[in-house]
Amino acid sequence: MLGVVVSRRQAIREGWLHRVAVTVCRDERGRILVHRRSEQLSRFPGLYEVVVGGAVDVGESYEQAAARELAEELGIRVLPRLLFTFINRSGLSPHWLGVHEAVVPDAVVPDPDEVAWHGRLTEPELRSALLEWRFTPDSHEAFGRYLAFRTAQSAGPPPGSRTREDAPSPAATPNRAGAADRAAR
Known about the structure:
- By secondary structure, the protein is of the alpha+beta class.
- Helix content is 29%, strand content 24%.
- The chain has a four-stranded mixed beta sheet. Strands 3-2-7 form a three-stranded antiparallel beta sheet.
- Strand 5 and strand 6 (95-103) form a beta hairpin.
- It starts with 7 loop residues before the first helix and ends with a helix.
């Protein structure tokens, strides 16, 4: 089925791999932006998220998708930095998840159709919230891996390990979910 474009909804229903780009948003003080999804969203309405993001459109890079999603959901224009990708099997269906990081301004203008509430938490506050509040499956998985990545980066890579630059890229993985996903949200 290479080259066939289907909606994200169909990719989820069929269990096909698709690509999703998310960003951990920090402010200048290191606090992490957390938001609660709008109740009108079809997937995970009312749950909290540690990341901002969505489906990668056909022909779009992870970075382009992450930047587009930040503009759509938070009304900000920043260039997020891709940290790593992995196949995420938590959630509705397996998908490649490209995890980014960005320093975002304090002034964000969330789209009320996407974001019902937002705030900034320190890492200790967020760790507590992850145990107490209802978060999306992607939030738990992505944030856990994000913290592990940051810890590994500060310690330096172990001998013989692969960095993002020399690791195989999932960019060649066909993205069966395309622009039709915008309507499926």
